[in-house]
Every structure is written in C-alpha cells, then in structure tokens.
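Data deposition worksheet. Section B asks for the primary sequence of the deposited chain exactly as it was used as input, without tags or linkers unless they were present during the calculation. Section C holds the resulting structure in token form. Section D is free text for depositor observations; keep each observation to a single sentence. Incomplete worksheets are returned to the depositor.
Section A, Depositor: J.P.
Section B:
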Amino acid sequence: MSSPKPVPMFSPEHFPIYMDYSATTPVDPRVVDVMIPYLREQFGNPASRSHAYGWSAEEAVENARAEVAKLVGADPREIVWTSGATESNNLAIKGAAHFYKEKGKHIITVKTEHKAVLDTCRELEREGYEVTYLDVLPNGLIDFEAFKSAVRPDTIVVSVMFVNNEIGVVQDIPRIGEFCREKGIVFHVDAAQATGKVAIDLQTLKVDLMSFSAHKTYGPKGVGALFVRRKPRIRIEAQMHGGGHERGMRSGTLATHQIVGMGECFRIAREEMASENERIRMLRDRLWNGLNQIEEVYLNGDMDQRIPHNLNISFNYVEGESMIMALKDIAVSSGSACTSASLEPSYVL
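Section C:
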C-alpha cells in the first residue's frame, strides 16, 4: 500500500494576507513573462561568443545591466552581477578592505545594519581588521557628529545601509558620502531596501559601492548587483575565482533568466516609483492612524525620514511572537528574515 501524499500546510485559497514585504516581494507577472523565454528557447550561455545562442543571452544580460544602471543613475559598466545583496555586501566590504589594507585596517559600520554587513565585518575582525559599530539615535538614524568622531587616519571603509530592513528609516547618505569623499574613505551602501522606494542618483551621490537585490523590488530571488564606481575608480579584490567574468570582479556563469528579471523589475520601478510610493503612503498612513487609536502602541523609527512601505510598531505588554501566532490571517514578522533562526528579540529594536 502506497504512503499518502504529504498535505501542504496551506492551500492557495487559505493563505494569509501578505504584509511581510521587507522580507521579500512577490514577482511581478510582467517580470515572470520576460524571464520564461530564457528558461526555454533562449537558454544560451552569455559567455559563449561563437554562436547565436550566446549572442542572444549576452544581449539580454547587457540590456538588463542598462536597466539597473538607469534606475540608480550609473554607467552600465559600473554594474556587476551577483547572486544577491548578501554576496554584493561581502564583495564590496571584503573586496575593498583587502585591496586597501596597506592604507589602514579600520572599518566603520552601524549596529543596526543587515547581518550580511555585520557578519562580514566580524569575519574581517578575525583577519585582524578593527571595526567600529556605531549606535543610532532613538529614531533609528545615525548621529552624524558621532560618526565623524569615529573616523581615524587608518579608516578605509564605511558601510551604511540606505534604508533599514526592519524599521524603514532612511539614512542621510548624501551627507555621509560627502564626508567620506573629503577624507578619501571608500563608502559602501546597502541599498537592497531602497530601490523603487527612494530616488537614487549615483552621478551626484558620493557613494563608491552600492549593493542591490532583485527580490526586494518585485523581481526573482537569487540575483543581485554591485555598483562599483569608475570615476574616481574604486578597486576591489575578487572574492570568487574561476573564469574572470564581470571584468574579473565576480566569476561564474551568469543566470540569464534571473538577470533579465532583475532588469525588468528595475525598469518597472523606475517608471512607476512616484505613483506607487504615493499609493503605498496613503495605505500605510491609514493603517497607522487606525492602530494609533489603541493604547500602548508605539512606532519604531522616525516617521518622516522613512520609506512609505514600512510600518514597524510595538505593542506594550504583548510578546511579538504570541501576537503573530494569534494573527493567523495576516503574514507579518517580528524581526528580519535574515535572523529568523534566532529566538532572540530583534537586535535593531
């Protein structure tokens, strides 16, 4: 007698209302449509330059690179494909730290950064680098004077996220970038949560390295990019070897279908960001105005310097996990997806 088939926990009609968009976003149907041909008939390797299959794949990759560059005001030659923001953060921070180690071995970051930044910095500490982890103000923003005081003659890299992945606050990246440029310090920004939500112009921002992710912007999981400035030229040491792809900065066969998807979701973000931000802001404010009528409800993070897509709140005397278990019809979280294996409270809060 055959064993019964496993029963899924949820059938599609019983799935809860999804409100965990900082963890991941659904893939836009338009993105799915442009990806499918590169899983079927246009399956060539973009590095194969001796036949039409490779030429077609390479053209698709370069078109997507151009779309990513357009959204953030970069030169397409400054966009390096990766497997996601975690790899981009590792490549940026380790790559710059290793390349510029003769100038110094001091790095500055923030205690509320994503684990992909914090754990990368801790790994560098094991290699002999010194890292300063800045506190934030009660509203989640950096104390700029404290940041300036932390800078030393041997500081070589500063890493600050554009938008916090838990509380949604937007750091003053232009001001921090200006200071880093004056001091000759490499400035890295994790912008995974910023694309499609905050206007980014890398022609004017004094940012040297910037990490991106597709799946936070209605694109597929497993693909991201790293902006590496050409003027003034920033050097990084490759962290993956085996073919010299992506101008020697990141080896490995490119996943054409995922890259095409990232290009499309960034194109859509560029065209629809203004109207979508306004729509989301109205919905967010409506939700907050209702919840704010409840006693002992508190907003986490600055409300003004914040993306419209985020609402992070605390209910006094109520454990977050208990509330989540009670809200079976709503999909929310009490912390970031990157720390879901931990039972500890959110380190950001």
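Section D:
The chain has a mean pLDDT of 93.
DSSP finds eight helices and eleven strands in the chain.
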